[in-house]
């Protein structure tokens, strides 16, 4: 029986001690391989292009270009497969974190995160179809979302069922959980999720949730998700 290929990780942080600690934790875990490191945002872009990792752990504040710009540049290169970028930060309510999620980061981790949570989060973001820490993402979106004066055009293009799926995505449900909630098949949910991403122009679920908050499709004022 063949095993799954290891999760390939790039570490991007300007502090050597942080990279050393992350490397030690991750390399001790089966099925995880640290394939590159970077000390600046520009290096993060270059190393990611060269190594094609599954996940990039990206410090949000770095020299040359910050983690937000580095995230944008990595995703703009259309690397195949597209890496999942997780920003690493000291403060979870930092507007930099929100901007990184808005730019396409799949989630965030705090620098004080314990080793077990770090490993679980890496595995989750590499293989799962749910949000990383959905309640924290919702809190950030509620606090920082720059709402549109009028709903963007994609809102009108969503079907009623697609709107339901988007709100359940924002609540942190997986495709299987959405399928059970709506009493439909997983393949149907997968089709709806793909339609939501296409219509919102989002790269992944996290970015779809962010733009949904900005458009007022989800939020506390809607009884929300």
Automatic annotation (TrEMBL):
InterPro entries: CheY-like_superfamily, NreC/VraR/RcsB-like_REC, Sig_transdc_resp-reg_C-effctor, Sig_transdc_resp-reg_receiver, Tscrpt_reg_LuxR_C, WalR-like. It comes from the Bacteria. Residues 151-216 form the HTH luxR-type domain. Keywords: DNA-binding, Phosphoprotein, Transcription, Transcription regulation. SUPFAM superfamilies: C-terminal effector domain of the bipartite response regulators (SSF46894), CheY-like (SSF52172). Residues 8-126 form the Response regulatory domain. The keyword Transcription regulation applies. It holds the Pfam family Response_reg. The modification 4-aspartylphosphate is found at residue 59. The keyword DNA-binding applies. Gene3D superfamilies: 3.40.50.2300. This is Response regulator transcription factor. It comes from Streptomyces macrolidinus.
């Amino acid at each position: 029986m063949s095993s799954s290929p290891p999760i390939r990780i790039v570490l991007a942080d300007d502090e050597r001690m942080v990279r050393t600690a992350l490397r030690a934790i991750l390399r001790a875990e089966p099925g995880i391989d640290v394939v590159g490191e970077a000390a600046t945002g520009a290096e993060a872009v270059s190393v990611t292009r060269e190594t094609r990792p599954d996940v990039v752990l990206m410090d949000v504040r770095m020299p040359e270009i910050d983690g937000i710009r580095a995230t944008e540049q990595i995703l703009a290169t259309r690397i195949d497969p597209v890496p999942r970028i997780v920003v690493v930060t000291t403060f979870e309510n930092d507007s930099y974190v929100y901007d990184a999620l808005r730019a396409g980061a799949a989630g965030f981790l705090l620098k004080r995160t314990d080793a077990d949570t770090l490993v679980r989060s890496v595995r989750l973001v590499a293989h799962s179809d749910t949000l990383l820490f959905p309640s924290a993402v919702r809190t950030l979106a509620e606090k920082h979302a720059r709402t549109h004066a009028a709903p963007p055009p994609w809102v009108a293009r969503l079907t009623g069922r697609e709107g339901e799926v988007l709100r359940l995505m924002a609540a942190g449900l997986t495709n299987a959980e959405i399928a059970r909630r709506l009493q439909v098949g997983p393949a149907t949910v997968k089709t709806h999720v793909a339609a939501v991403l296409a219509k919102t122009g989002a790269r992944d679920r996290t970015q779809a949730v962010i733009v949904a908050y900005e458009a007022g499709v989800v939020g506390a004022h809607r009884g929300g998700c």
